[in-house]
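New to this. Explain the following:
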Amino acid sequence: MARNVISYYRFNRKRMGARFVECMVSGRGLLFHDGSWLSDDGEWIIVDVITNWADSDRKTRKICELIVSREQLETALRHVTPKE
């Protein structure tokens, strides 16, 4: 089972590109825009939350758009640790 999930993940990664981060269970994902902008408050990145229906006849669609701080993303990811 795990092998099939990984193969599907790799297939979608190729199909959607390097800026796509897929949810492993929901058919949704994050699609990062290719540019960011700087302000006095830091660097801001636009991220689309999308449905990703690669295995059906339904089209991929945008659910919502987020504008997030690179610094906050990096800080949050540093606090995520693997479960044993």
